[in-house]
Design goal:
Elements lengths: L11 H4 E2 L11 E6 L2 E11 L3 E8 L4 E7 L7 E3 L11 H14 L8 H4 L7 H11 L6 E4 L7 H14 L6 E5 L4 H12 L4 E2 L2 H6 L5 H4 L2 E5 H6 L1 H8 L5 E6 L7 E4 L2 E4 L1 H11 L1 E7 L8 H8 L24 E2 L18 E8 L3 H22 L4 H20 L1 H28 L11 H8 L3 H14 L6 H24 L3 H13 L2 H4 L26 E4 L3 H15 L5 E4 L5 H13 L5 E4 L14 E4 L7 H10 L8 E8 L3 H20 L17 H11 L3 H14 L2 H11 L8 H17 L3 H14 L3 E6 L2 E6 L5
Parallel strand pairs: 7-14, 7-15, 8-10, 8-11, 9-10, 11-14, 16-21, 17-19, 17-20, 18-19, 20-21
Antiparallel strand pairs: 1-6, 2-3, 2-6, 3-4, 4-5, 12-13, 22-23
Helix pairs in contact: 2-29, 4-5, 5-6, 13-14, 13-18, 14-15, 14-17, 15-17, 15-18, 15-21, 24-25, 24-26
Length: 799
């Protein structure tokens, strides 16, 4: 470093003196010949008394000449201080410069700098994920697959902050489901002071360069916004739009499927392929990366390493060790720094109930209608239309199992829409017009719909359920409308009777959870849930918090009125569903967590991702999802970091129904396995395959053909085989995917490493001392108001 540069030049009297050309003597140090540098006089040759030729040497040793005249005297300075090797530079300024360099390189002697500069209190598994599993990988191509509630957002924030501190990251893009975008933005700014911006249509249109991605270094984009909008993808694809890190949250949505030996690539998967090419570091985050099909999983892993997972997977031929590309830790193996388990135990109960005679008759009638329509749909030559009709019938069957209110409203809306369609067809037939196309979805659309935001799913389901029909003529349509009219009247009778056995079971359970004395006059004697494990149910208390999940908005609205009446207070119940905006959802979440008057949260699967509900430790699945991954996602809302109580989950299952029998046997087997294998059985729900069939396919099989003896035998056999304790143990071992565990000795080593890092880190008083001195030197003023708090009244322009 040139020591002369440490000398301030504004005060000319302190560092130089006015000079004349006669003062240019050999070895004199002169400023003004070269910009911002000193030269040393070698020789001077005069031409008369008004001009001379100056020969000088630069600090680099280069010799040069220049003609000088009297009018040049004003720009020349004879330097008396700051000569090379004179040791008279500004020591205080030199200390500030060196201290600035030391702070900039703080990560070299503080190995966990991001931890010490963020508002987080990380846990052992988070430290190992960031500093042992991810940071050493250059470039990073990684799948972080820890269980729900393990704090993957914190791990991603620490990684980003650490890469920024090390000068390895300037541009970062986070891709996540739409409902989680604001939560990512809040967490990253509040905990890590990282100012991410969320992509919106307004920002796209207002971009100065025409490409918002080029102007924004820290960006958050909604998954479906990118996957469905080709114009936005084109902006991402331009050569200059490169990223240092791309993070994909809930990355299992970027999935492809193999069906009939052929890979089907969804729009989301194609987006994942694009993002993989745009970045140096690529991080996928998902608690449920494996859907039970190895071929699908290997397609998913191809996003990280296309060479290794290239080609068609064949069972028994292809194997791949993923341990260098991913990490998965299950909740039961996570520990705190003191060596105690991080998560309390979790236990599920199966609560069976018997349908009343009118309910059983309604169930039988609607199921028969669904079976007949399935058979008619299979006869259609249009596969796309047949798939859409099948999807509509599946929705109807699930609403039948949900509540009398849900099935009545669904039948009524379907009947009204088909009547309207019949009138349109009649008019077109008379006028000779062509009927408009009905709603139809291909395999990609159905795949996208499986993981789409709930409000979009609800809208699509209504359109499909109300329009999709297997009727090929107006006569067939009239017959179907007559059937629907009869079923609607039957459902209305059940609804008006008030004899809802599922609700009675829930009201009985509410009595057990809260205060039986206060509810004794409204409910029957509480029953002990079936399948209770080694841990007794919670002690009744009016201060308990309970989360109830349902699948359908009609059921949710019905339950809200019933529970409000039962508890006697309208403010005791709050609701979350896909149609509620972000601000309202946050308000509901906060009131449930902090308002003692709020006892019950009623939610659809809109609350199944990205919402922290560990204030409660009790949950009821009023409706059971046909995607078993949803069970784990729901349970993960309460069974997450910060939970201190044993978590209890009740699953309501109808006896003597085809899908109920399958689900009850599934849950009973899982409970038996849980007692033997621990809570890890919840981690394999999404991976269960029943002789190549998913749970959804198994339930549809039961609905369509469950009365056949051979199908009954098949269902019993496949459930017993799949849920055998040995098979589940193998699944648990396989589900680890990358064998990574955390024992007490490892936690002890991490704690010791953290203590050493804390001793070596850049202490806050060094930062404070540097700031005060540098701020004052630049012209700023800061006055102390109280200890460790200052008022800044003037900020200088350079800052």
């Amino acid at each position: 470093m040139d020591s002369a540069r440490l000398v301030p030049h504004k005060n000319k009297d302190a560092t130089s003196q006015a000079m004349q050309l006669e003062q240019l003597q050999t070895n004199a140090a002169i400023r003004g010949i070269l910009p911002d540098a000193l030269v040393t006089v070698v020789s001077v040759q005069w031409f008369g008394s008004e001009a001379l030729e100056l020969t000088y040497k630069t600090s680099a040793g280069k010799v040069a000449n220049e003609l000088l005249y009297r009018h040049d005297e004003a720009r020349l300075e004879l330097v008396e201080q700051g000569r090379p090797w004179s040791f008279d530079g500004d020591g205080a300024l030199f200390r500030l410069v060196s201290e600035a360099h030391r702070i900039r390189l703080a990560h070299l002697f503080d190995p966990v700098l991001a931890v010490h500069t963020s508002m987080v209190d990380p846990l052992p598994h988070q430290i190992t994920a960031v500093y042992e599993a991810m940071l050493p990988r250059q470039p990073l191509r990684f799948l972080l697959a820890d269980d729900p509630g393990a704090g993957k957002t914190i791990m991603a924030g620490l990684l980003i902050k650490e890469l920024v501190a090390r000068g390895d990251l300037q541009r970062c893009l986070i891709v996540c489901p739409g409902s989680l975008a604001e939560q990512w933005q809040d967490e990253l700014y509040r905990r890590f002071h990282l100012p991410f911006e969320i992509l919106t249509n307004d920002k796209l249109e207002a971009a100065r360069t025409g490409n918002w991605f080029l102007e924004t270094n820290l960006a958050i984009a909604r998954l479906d916004k990118l996957s469905r909008n080709e114009d936005v993808q084109q902006k991402l694809e331009i050569p200059d739009c490169r990223w240092d890190l791309v993070v994909c949250d809930e990355a299992h949505k970027l999935s492809a499927t193999v069906f009939g030996g052929e890979a089907r690539y969804t729009k989301r998967y194609k987006l994942g392929q694009l993002l993989s090419t745009l970045t140096r570091h690529f991080l996928l985050m998902s608690a449920t990366p494996h859907n039970g099909k190895e071929a699908d999983f290997q397609l998913f892993m191809a996003l990280l390493d296309g060479d290794r997972f290239e080609g068609r997977f064949r069972d028994g031929v292809h194997t791949a060790d993923c341990s260098d590309l991913m990490r998965r830790m299950v909740k039961e193996r996570l520990l705190k720094f003191d060596g105690t388990p991080l998560f309390p135990e979790r236990i599920a109960y199966t609560v069976p109930y018997q349908l009343s005679d009118p309910e059983a008759a309604l169930y039988q009638a609607v199921t028969e209608y669904v079976r007949e329509e399935f058979n008619r749909a299979e006869a259609l030559e249009n596969d796309k239309r047949a798939g859409t009709v099948g999807f509509a019938l599946t929705i109807l069957q699930r609403r039948l199992a949900s509540s009398p209110e849900a099935i009545y409203q669904s039948l009524r809306r379907r009947r009204e829409r088909l009547e309207s369609r019949l009138r349109e067809l009649d008019v077109l037939h008379r006028s000779g017009g062509v009927p408009p196309p009905t709603a139809a979805l291909d395999a990609d659309d159905l795949e996208d719909l499986e993981d789409a935001p709930e409000d979009e799913v609800a809208t699509a389901e209504e359109a499909i359920l109300d329009q999709a029909t297997a009727a090929r003529s107006m006569a067939e349509l009239r017959i179907e409308i007559d059937t629907l009219r009869r079923l609607e009247a039957q459902a209305l009778t059940v609804r008006r009777s008030g004899n809802d056995t599922k609700w009675m079971e829930l009201s009985s359970l509410l009595g057990e959870v809260f205060t039986p004395a206060a509810l004794a006059d409204r409910i029957e004697e509480p029953k002990t849930p079936y399948g209770a494990g080694s841990i007794p149910p919670p002690t009744p208390s009016p201060h308990q918090k309970l989360v109830i999940f349902t699948e359908h908005r009609d059921t949710l609205n019905d339950l809200e009125g019933r529970i409000t009446t039962l508890l006697g207070r309208k403010d005791a119940v709050v609701i979350i569903h896909g149609g509620i905006g972000r601000e309202a959802r946050l308000k509901v979440q906060e009131s449930f967590k902090h308002d003692p008057e709020v006892q019950v949260l009623l939610a659809t699967d809109a609350a199944g991702e990205g919402i922290n509900l560990q204030r409660a430790h009790l949950m009821v699945n009023y409706d059971l999802p046909w995607n078993p991954n949803r069970l784990e996602q729901r349970f993960g809302r309460i069974h997450r970091i910060g939970q201190t109580e044993v978590c209890h989950l009740w699953n309501l299952v109808a006896d003597d129904t085809r899908e109920g029998d399958v689900y009850r046997k599934l849950l009973e087997k899982l409970e038996q396995a849980r007692q033997a294998l621990g809570g890890q059985v919840f981690d394999v729900l999404g991976k269960l395959q029943f002789q190549g069939k998913s749970l959804r396919e198994l339930l549809i099989e039961a609905i369509r053909h469950g009365e056949r003896p051979e199908v009954k035998a098949f269902l019993t056999t496949v459930l017993d085989t799949t849920l055998d304790r040995g098979h589940l143990q193998d699944l648990i071992e396989e589900r680890v995917l990358a064998h990574d565990a955390m024992d007490a000795s490892r936690v002890q080593r991490i704690r010791e490493d953290m203590e050493r890092a804390d001793a070596r880190r850049l202490q806050p008083h060094y930062i404070e001392s540097f700031f005060h001195e540098a701020f004052k030197r630049l012209g700023g003023t800061a006055k102390q108001r109280e200890p460790r708090r200052y008022e800044i009244s003037h900020v200088p322009a350079p800052v």
